[in-house]
Amino acid sequence: MSAKNVEHKFITPNSVDVRDYQVNLANQAKNENCLIILPTGLGKTVVALHVIADYLAKGNGGVLFLAPTKVLVNQHYEFLKNTLTIDDIAIITGEDLLSKRKKLWINSVICATPEITRNDIARKIVDTTQFNLIVFDEAHRAVGDYAYVEIAEQLVGSNVRLLGMTATLPSEKEKAKEICDNLHIKSLAERNDSSPDVKPYIKETSTEWINVELPPDMVAIQKCLKLALNERYEQLRRNGIQLSIENKSLSALLRVRQYVLTQNRRSAKPLFTAIRITYALNILEAHGITPFLKFCERTSKKKGAGIKELFEIDPNFTRAIQLSKIAQSKGLEHSKIPKLLDIVSSVTDKVLIFTSYRDSVNVINEKLNSIGIKSEILIGKAGETGLKQKKQVETVQRFRDGDTKVLVATRVGEEGLDISQVNLVVFYDNVPSSIRFIQRRGRTGRKTSGRLVVLIAKDTIDEIYYWIGKRKIASAKTVGEKLSKKLGSEEVNTESLDSFL
């Protein structure tokens, strides 16, 4: 490994080490719209820095660095402030007033969230032609109606260079193509853990899959919910809706929603009730008693087909709620909790815990604090209980500094969070997504060897998501390998993308 420092007019001396793979990826991205695919922890931001410095040297426009969360935007802003030799670097988020943003948009380098960028383009506060380079971090988000798509659409026919960055491609080829099309990508530059020039920088992460059994109280609740769900599946089957009775899934229910709404209205009530029960069951199985009851409390107050019947009349569902309240009064949450407390108590290092559900974040945090472990939560800003940008940044900084031992995070902590010396990451729940799994796992093993612990409740949605995730990770790797071979030639064009995808 080279210990040389990067030398460039616009890069602060002694701030960045030379890594050949980063330089080579950056060189490819300078020539045409490019998607960088590089595993978490290997310095995608440094690759972007190389490209940014070269575009600043051209002197014919500014640089816009987009990232999906305010914590990540702030992280990029701090990094660029410390590594670029220029002073006019700004950070822009929705928390800045309009009058302030008008002044900030004139800086040479701007780090911003996509939503406020899209809105200010629409307000004509910012002109996209003032940039000669736009970086889309976490580029896998550029699908559907996400703000990245609309921003890139504004740049069709312009000379603005687009650079996308992601840790992995989606496992579905159609989504990979959609990302490339939306960001007008002409080439892909990829490295993975097996790439010869990357291997010296890889720190090993060991993975442990820990199985827990649901306690009898939870099994009884689970049984009631499954009986309520079976009843709706039977109603849907009688109405001519073809759904697998053996392999019930939320995605299968959601797929028939449009058909039911347009061509089979009599099935609307059992379908939407089945969807709600499935959500409730998944939350119980993966997250526990309190998250389940919180979900039921919120859902029961909504208006919709079958809600009153489900929460007031249905014998199985109302019994599930009754049993949950009894279990909660006895202090029962989930069999994952004692296992989690044992794991965290056994280490002295910092621990990052991921869970997809905000209510379980609070339960985990309270349990850790109750046994004297300094723990904080990291969640998004939405809702009354959300954390504003300043609070998110402060929370992450305390964890970085070691003032907090444990950080319990939702999805906001998955993307791009650079917290050195996290040697243990725990998945409290499983995610059926190769991108999210790889991002979560990538929070450890950045500076030294890491450890990943995944908690799985037997005979629950956890096991189903485990197998889905495993399959998608293998598929995503294949997509990346095929793309690398297909696009390895010097002359890369859209047709070669189309022929592959």
Description:
The relative contact order is 0.11. This protein has 501 residues and is α/β, with parallel strands linked by helices. Helix 11 runs antiparallel to helix 12 (289-300). Strands 3-4-2-5-6-1-7 form a seven-stranded parallel beta sheet, with helices on both faces. A six-stranded parallel beta sheet has the order 8-13-12-9-11-10, with helices on both faces. The protein is built from 20 helices and 13 strands. The longest helix has 26 residues, at 461-486. Helix 17 (389-401) links the parallel strand 10 and strand 11 (406-409).
Largest sheet: 7 strands, parallel
Strand order of the largest sheet: 3-4-2-5-6-1-7
- Overall geometry: globular
Rg, please? Answer: 24 Å
Produce the secondary structure layout.
Blueprint: H1 20-29, E1 34-37, H2 44-58, E2 62-66, H3 70-83, E3 89-92, H4 98-104, E4 109-112, H5 114-122, E5 131-137, H6 147-153, E6 161-166, H7 173-182, E7 187-190, E8 205-212, H8 216-238, H9 250-255, H10 257-263, H11 268-287, H12 289-300, H13 307-312, H14 315-329, H15 336-345, E9 350-354, H16 358-370, E10 375-378, H17 389-401, E11 406-409, E12 422-427, H18 434-441, E13 450-457, H19 461-486, H20 494-500
Parallel strand pairs: 1-6, 1-7, 2-4, 2-5, 3-4, 5-6, 8-13, 9-11, 9-12, 10-11, 12-13
